[in-house]
Amino acid sequence: MWPRKRSRPAGGHEHDTAIDDADRKLAESQARSQAAAEVVERARRARTVLHHEVAKNGWTELFLASMQRGS
Fold first, then answer.
1. What is the pLDDT of residues 28-69, one digit of tens each?
2. Does the pTM exceed 0.90?
3. Could you tell me if residue 62 is inside a domain?
């Protein structure tokens, strides 16, 4: 009465394709995430360098101004 159970589902190929597609999308997402993390890290380093330069130059400008007032 009932059809025999197939060893493989009728849409087996589509299932494999869907898994491959999901794996590809996951790999692409991980690559984008890694690229974004690298951009964030470069931005943090640049911000730190800029912060140090501003702090150093600000101190230098104040020091030079005080030296000019004193002479």
1. 999 999 999 999 999 999 999 888 888 888 777 777 778 888
2. no
3. yes
Tokens of 21: 């597609």
Distance CA 66, CA 62 (A): 6
Which tokens sit at 11? 């849409």
Residue 9, phi then psi, degrees to nearest 5: -60, 155
Which amino acid is present at 57?
N
Contact 25, 32 (CB under 8 A): no
Structure tokens of 14? 């589509």
- In angstroms, what CA-CA distances link 8 with 11, 13, 14, 16, 51? 8, 9, 12, 12, 63
* Residue 56 belongs to some domain of the structure: yes
- Could you tell me if residue 4 is inside a domain? no
